[in-house]
């Protein structure tokens, strides 16, 4: 069946299309109800189907003969540790850990906060929760104590699972003091913390509150998989909202299992036995969907990498991993490739490795600029596929379907076409649908397909307000962009990344594309600075490629000319400022919102997700010297 036929079926009769796809999942008892509209107006799929997500990811794979297949390749360049964990090994470790949690009172529906680095025990912990029907909430290991405390208070876990430390390049980051501080700050006090002691750093244990990971499970018997319903929550994952209070995105078991199976096979084109690498962290949605659950539920082998794209030990780290594990396909954010490119512009390091196992690579999470796209495609000589999704959806909304014959061609600047089940529309501010090539709010006509979050933890009403109220009948993605004549989607950025110059709405993403195409530029951010005459004017913050020493005035002149040439004089792009580095989240996204505040001379709060707090004052100083902001 062609993509068009799939799309048509999912569009005309979503319930029948997804009921058909749900047959790929081994339910204990198949769903009687396919889809249910909730009180908030969202849609819950397969609410009464009985299943267990850990069973699907682990036990089922063994029943199907994959017991000796590697489930996870753990690779940690900073510690030099590598481990090949088969499905049999994984089942033993997960069942035992689940048994230990059960002995300690964890039951179906209880919450467990996981604050751990990228070590296999973190995946074991997630799967063990799923085995018991407990709800895990993984908090990115690196969030400050206060952020962890906010999440503890919202999720009210019975238990916290942590490790003595994480590793950033070659630096040890002690986790335990952070957890202790968070527990101190939180109003809700979890009964105890289980600590995995890493050999390089032993955490101080609190005698009455902390339990050693090994002791915790020393006497435990393996636990069986608990039957849960499709609508029961599998996990809560916090993501930033427009307020300081993060949104606890709730993922159910049923729709999630159907969606991930579909995505792994059809979107990513992976089969059982293939090697897949989600180069991210379990603290983010990619880690949930495509490091742990997706590849395992699909019988794949997942790479579990505790390292960075560069300085691990060099910018050839990714290529080494691809060769060593014969990675068939991978996913990461474009920022990783930009970091590699900055260190190794000619891609010399890649030439030392055999990358022939790669069929295609996926990128998402932020805009893929054409220049990085071209560099990477030229280097790898395989399709580089930009696709688009967000924490809330849990799986892609647009992508070519690599598992089917003749997937849509990639188109420069586009994240490709809507995946069957996503009826993507571009609406103007009043909810009218825009014509092809007109930029507006990217929305999805309800119902959303299975797997998409349909509630916010503890606050179902907030779900409605955040996603369903702006455009009744639609899910509001918060992204701006357009659709071309052939239905390809182009994401120009968050709707709040649009700047208004003399009444003209302009995409900073578009200008970034042009600026980053300059041969001396490694990466950039274009922000709207306050302008008393025009409201806002764009300013480019530019990071040069290693070894480039172009005169700043000359660079500025060239960039201004390029933007004028490609966007027009109305863009008023007149200033480009060279900076050493850009402020990013730990997952690699440029922190544009805070840059906007700085550029607008507004007070800002240090974002909790920031990678390095010293960057913002550094940039403020540079902008002040260049007269962009007042001191
Ligand atoms: P998150 O929920 O943190 O994964 O962020 C999701 C947001 O990242 C989306 O709403 C988009 O703004 C952005 N995003 C994700 N994928 C892409 C992409 N391929 N191109 C451009 N922006 C993207």
TrEMBL record:
Signal peptide boundaries: none
Domain AMP-dependent synthetase/ligase span(s) in chain numbering: 68-447
Instruction: Report the residue ranges that make up the AMP-binding enzyme C-terminal domain in this protein.
Output: 510-589
Q: Which PROSITE patterns does this one have? A: AMP_BINDING (PS00455)
Where are its TM segments located? none
Residue ranges of domain Acetyl-coenzyme A synthetase N-terminal in the record: 3-56
Note the superkingdom of the native organism.
Answer: Bacteria
A Pfam family that this protein carries is: AMP-binding
The UniProt similarity line reads: Belongs to the ATP-dependent AMP-binding enzyme family.
User: In its UniProt entry, what is this protein called?
Assistant: AMP-binding protein
List the top taxonomic levels of the source.
Answer: Bacteria, Pseudomonadati, Pseudomonadota, Gammaproteobacteria, Oceanospirillales
């Amino acid at each position: 069946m062609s993509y068009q036929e799939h799309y048509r079926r999912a569009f005309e009769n979503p319930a029948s299309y997804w009921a058909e796809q749900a047959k790929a999942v081994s339910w204990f008892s198949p769903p009687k109800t396919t889809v249910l509209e909730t009180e908030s107006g969202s849609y819950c799929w397969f609410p009464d189907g009985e299943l267990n997500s850990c069973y699907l990811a682990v036990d089922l794979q063994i029943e199907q003969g994959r017991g000796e297949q590697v489930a996870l390749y753990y690779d940690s360049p900073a510690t030099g540790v590598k481990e090949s964990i088969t499905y049999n090994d994984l089942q033993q470790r997960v069942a035992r850990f689940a048994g230990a949690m059960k002995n300690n009172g964890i039951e179906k529906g209880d919450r467990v906060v996981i604050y751990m680095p990228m070590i296999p025990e973190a995946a074991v912990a997630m799967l063990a929760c799923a085995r018991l029907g407990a709800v895990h909430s993984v908090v990115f290991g690196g969030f400050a104590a206060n952020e962890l405390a906010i999440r503890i208070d919202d999720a009210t876990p019975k238990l916290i699972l942590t490790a003595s430390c994480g590793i950033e390049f070659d630096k040890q980051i002690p986790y335990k003091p952070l957890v202790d501080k968070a527990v101190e700050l939180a109003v809700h006090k979890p009964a105890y913390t289980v600590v995995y002691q890493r050999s390089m750093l032993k955490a101080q244990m609190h005698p009455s509150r902390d339990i050693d990971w090994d002791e915790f499970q020393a006497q435990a018997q393996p636990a069986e998989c608990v039957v849960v319903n499709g609508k029961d929550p599998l996990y809560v994952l916090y993501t930033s909202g427009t307020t300081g209070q993060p949104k606890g995105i709730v993922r159910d078991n049923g729709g999630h299992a159907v969606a991930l199976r579909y995505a792994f096979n059809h979107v990513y084109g992976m089969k059982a036995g293939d090697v897949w690498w989600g180069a991210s962290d379990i603290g983010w949605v990619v880690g949930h969907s495509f490091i742990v659950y997706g590849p395992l539920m699909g019988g794949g082998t997942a790479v579990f990498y505790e390292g960075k794209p560069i300085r691990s030990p060099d910018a050839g780290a990714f290529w080494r991993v691809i060769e060593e594990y014969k990675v068939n396909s991978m996913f990461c954010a474009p920022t990783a490739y930009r970091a590699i490119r900055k260190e190794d512009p000619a891609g010399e390091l890649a030439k030392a490795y055999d990358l022939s196992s790669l069929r295609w690579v996926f990128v998402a999470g932020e805009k893929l600029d054409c220049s990085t796209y071209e560099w990477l495609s030229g280097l790898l000589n395989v399709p580089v596929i930009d696709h688009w999704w967000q924490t809330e959806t849990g799986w892609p909304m647009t992508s070519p379907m690599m598992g089917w014959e003749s997937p849509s061609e990639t188109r420069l600047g586009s994240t490709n076409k809507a995946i069957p089940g996503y009826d993507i529309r571009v609406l103007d501010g009043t909810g009218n649908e825009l014509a092809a090539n007109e930029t507006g709010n990217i929305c999805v006509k309800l119902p959303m397909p299975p797997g998409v979050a349909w509630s916010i933890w503890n606050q179902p009403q907030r779900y409605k307000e955040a996603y369903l109220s702006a455009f009744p009948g639609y899910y509001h993605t918060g992204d701006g962009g357009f659709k071309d004549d052939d239905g390809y989607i182009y994401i120009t950025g968050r709707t709040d990344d649009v700047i208004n110059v003399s009444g003209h709405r302009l995409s900073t993403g578009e200008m970034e594309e042009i600026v980053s195409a300059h041969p001396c530029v490694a990466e950039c951010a274009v922000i709207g600075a306050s302008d008393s005459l025009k409201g806002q004017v764009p300013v480019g913050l530019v990071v040069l490629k290693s070894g480039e020493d172009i005169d700043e005035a000359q660079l500025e002149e060239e960039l201004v000319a390029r933007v004028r040439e490609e966007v027009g004089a109305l863009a008023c792009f007149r200033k480009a400022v060279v900076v050493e580095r850009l402020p990013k989240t730990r997952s690699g996204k440029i922190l544009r919102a805070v840059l906007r505040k700085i550029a607008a001379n507004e007070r800002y709060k240090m974002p909790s997700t920031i990678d390095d707090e010293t960057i913002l004052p550094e940039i403020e100083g540079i902008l002040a010297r260049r007269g962009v902001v007042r001191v």
